[in-house]
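Example S7 (structure tokens).
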């Protein structure tokens, strides 16, 4: 049996283990985005997968699964008390573009998926206007459990949770990280003095990757005038990805 057979066998074992832990795992061989972490049902008990998984997390797909499993069991900050489902993020494990917001809202919490409410609809339109599809990018948040009344996470909540985000970024290695608003900008740049109103549209660096901050879709819903500068920022993202704007009607 060659190395590839070993990897395939181990992935199959992992799928079975994840299914046993209540997690959906979708692997599409035919697409360039072969791995999607689907919503996790909340379990207050620690997943048996984490303790008994005999498969070493060698491939990035395995490790994203591992991170999502750890998030489902995490009680490292008080946000765990108000959640229904954890929201680890979703999208391509090979995404060149990663969007990061502050935290899940009520609808995200109910579905276990990021950006599914009104802000999510706007984000989907923004992604499609860039000539991309949601499953070509990766979408996640700084904190993985619901933020009550859409308040920003506290610094202690960010500190407790941001290890998960940093591990996701390290595995996916996107070309561009697009940070929505102050929370991901400050968390990733490790600087609480930064402000999105002055930093948006700038090319920053995070661990060798380009980080471009812009306004959060929620902010755009309440401040339509901010859509124009946000779109300029997204065009900069496209330029950095080496992509051109899709032709209208094309
Ligand atoms: Fe754990 Fe993050 Fe949820 Fe807090 S927000 S309980 S650190 S997963």
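Recovered sequence:
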């Amino acid at each position: 049996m060659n190395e590839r057979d070993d990897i395939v066998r181990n992935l199959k074992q992992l799928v079975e283990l994840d299914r046993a832990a209540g997690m959906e795992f979708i692997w599409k061989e035919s697409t360039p985005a072969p791995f999607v972490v689907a919503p996790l049902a909340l379990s207050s008990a620690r997943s048996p997968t984490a303790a008994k998984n005999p498969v070493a997390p060698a491939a990035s797909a395995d490790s994203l699964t591992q991170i999502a499993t750890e998030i489902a069991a995490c009680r490292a900050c008080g946000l765990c008390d108000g959640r229904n489902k954890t929201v680890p993020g979703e999208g391509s494990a090979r995404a060149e573009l990663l969007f990061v917001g502050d935290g899940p809202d009520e609808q995200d919490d109910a579905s276990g998926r990021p950006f599914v409410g009104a802000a999510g609809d706007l984000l989907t339109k923004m992604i499609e206007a860039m000539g991309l599809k949601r499953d070509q990018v990766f979408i996640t948040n700084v904190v993985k459990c619901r933020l009550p009344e859409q308040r920003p996470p506290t610094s202690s909540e960010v500190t407790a949770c941001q290890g998960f985000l940093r591990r996701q970024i390290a595995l996916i290695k996107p070309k561009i990280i697009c940070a929505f608003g102050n929370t991901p900008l400050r968390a990733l740049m490790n600087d609480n003095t930064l402000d999105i109103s002055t930093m948006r549209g700038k090319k920053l660096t995070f661990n060798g990757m380009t980080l471009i901050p812009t306004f959060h879709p929620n902010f755009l819903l309440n401040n339509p005038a901010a859509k124009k500068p946000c779109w300029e920022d997204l065009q900069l993202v496209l330029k950095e990805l080496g992509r051109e704007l899709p032709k209208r009607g094309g």
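Notes on this example. Residues 96 and 173 are 7 Å apart (CA to CA).
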